[in-house]
Structures are given as C-alpha cells and as structure tokens.
C-alpha cells in the first residue's frame, strides 16, 4: 500500500445523518478533526461531501404531494447553504479556510471546461484552501446526474491526478455477502488481478443515496485501473481516516494499477457522456489492442452513428456492439463520414486521446 499524498475524500449522506434522517453534527465534527489530522501530515485533501438534502429536509417542510424532483431541488439548494456553513465553522476552529464548488456532469464533458475546473481546484489546494465539492442537484438534468457522489469523487480524483480516493460509507467495505448476515467476511484487499466481485454485492441502497455498494465497487475498480489507490471504509467509525493513514483498521483496499496520462483519466469516465458512436472492423480492433501506440484511422471504421464536432467524446465499438474504448474526435462528423474506410488519412482519434477498455 502506498502512502497518502494527494487524497480525495468522499463522505456519503448515510455517514453524515442520524437514523432519523437529521444531520449528525457530532460525526461531521469528528470527520473535520480527522481531515485536519491528514492535512497536518502534509497531505493535500479535497472533500466531496453529500448531505445537502438532509440539511434541507431539517430546515424546510414541504407538501407530501409536491413533485419529488422539485422537492429534492428545493432541499438541495437550501440545505447546501447550511452544509457549507457547518463545514466553514468547524474547519475555522482548526485554522482552515474552505471553498464551495458545485458541479454537474456537464462540467466534465467539455475538455476546456474540465481543465478550467481542474485549474480552479488545484489553485485552491496550492493556497492551502480546502475545496468542498458537491453535485449541483438544484440545476442538474436528471438524465445527466451523477450516479451518486462516488462517481463525482472518482472523476475528481482522476481530474486532479490524486494518488488516493477514500469512499466513506456506513459499512466497513466490500463483504463476501450482505454485511449484516452471519458468515459474511470483509474483503480487505482487492488486487489488480482480482476477479469480478459484483456477485457479492447487496443491491440495497441507503435512504439518501442514489447509488449503492455496487456503484462504489465499479468506481473503485475504475479508479484503481487509472492508478489511484482506493479505500472503501466506514465513516461512522472513530478515527477511520487516521487508521487509513497509519495502515491499520478494517476497510477494503484496492491496489492501484500503473498511473495513466491525465487525458486518458478524463476519457475513462466518458462512457456516460459520449456524443456519437464509431463501429470499427476486427483489423482495427486487433491493431488498437496489440500495438503499444496506435491511433484510430478512418480505414478501420465501418460506420459512424451520430453528429459530433472536433473535441467531442466518441465511443468505439466493435462489429458485435461491444464497447472497447473512448476517444476525443480530431475532426467533425461531416469530415469523418467522408473518410470512412479510406487509407492514408489523419487519425479520427489520436493515441494521446484514446482510452481502451480492457475486458476481463
């Protein structure tokens, strides 16, 4: 296990709330103390925090019949103020300044917007200010919302080239069955070659979260594949962040692969917001996977589905419809469609902007 140097910590709503759904202020206070401890060890920290809806529910009673999406928007927009004020007050006691960043998935889609956000966050960290990030639920389009803040934390860790991602939930990690059932054992270590663990995961979700343990598993494995070490741990446990730092205690650790280029880290999450599809032949597929450095050329393309402009994210599929990669378009769809199957053409996706998905 590597040491922590640059860490994204995600705190789930089920960690920040009590059983009655109200915010757990003593738990938040303890986690602030723990994050302060990490910063005192010269670890750079970015916090991704849920909890806005819970704070909003506590403050505002809404009619039962009101549209559920509108209710969440209201609770999120009002609760976010209370959530960030709570963090500001508690971190101020330790001499730490905080900033608030609210994002939507759209912010990660455009490369220029993505880099602008990255520069802002890294600028805050360089000035010793703690960025606190949350999804902007009040304006996010439902179809483009993050699965939950695990996805947002994973994207953030990839964006800033963090070496560590800590996902705090209300169980100790990944188990060999339902955590509460007798006989279920904690999986403490997930290596690079570990087989699929999804069969172990309970489909149950927390009362506040959109995702569940399966989402955490998928995001953890993707982050580890990108070279980020991941910890899934119990945020309700006393001193859990200190335990992770000291390499003791109980949690699930995901061994990181070799780190990938920052652009490939960005593309790795593009399967949720690509704008068009490219179908390639077997020869092109073989070339992409068998050569160390290979761009996607028009000669290997069978079909292009959808319209796109230069810089958009495209998904690459084989002739059987399997997703095999993602990449950034070097030119628009009009030009690309004219070049389908032609030799001696510029790459439609350059190697530097190509991310291949290695299936088990």
Automatic annotation (TrEMBL):
Q: Which residues bind substrate?
A: 50, 137, 149
**Which InterPro entries does its entry note?**
AceGlu_kinase-like_sf, Asp/Glu/Uridylate_kinase, G5K_ProB, Glu/AcGlu_kinase, Glu_5kinase, Glu_5kinase/COase_Synthase, PUA, PUA-like_sf
| Keyword Cytoplasm included in the entry's annotation | yes
PROSITE patterns in alphabetical order: PUA
Cellular localisation = Cytoplasm
Recorded GO terms, molecular function?
ATP binding; glutamate 5-kinase activity; RNA binding
Residue stretches making up the PUA domain:
276-349
**HAMAP family membership:** ProB
What protein is this chain from?
Glutamate 5-kinase
Q: Which species is the source of this protein?
A: Belliella baltica (strain DSM 15883 / CIP 108006 / LMG 21964 / BA134)
Per UniProt, what is the name of the gene that codes for the protein in this document? proB
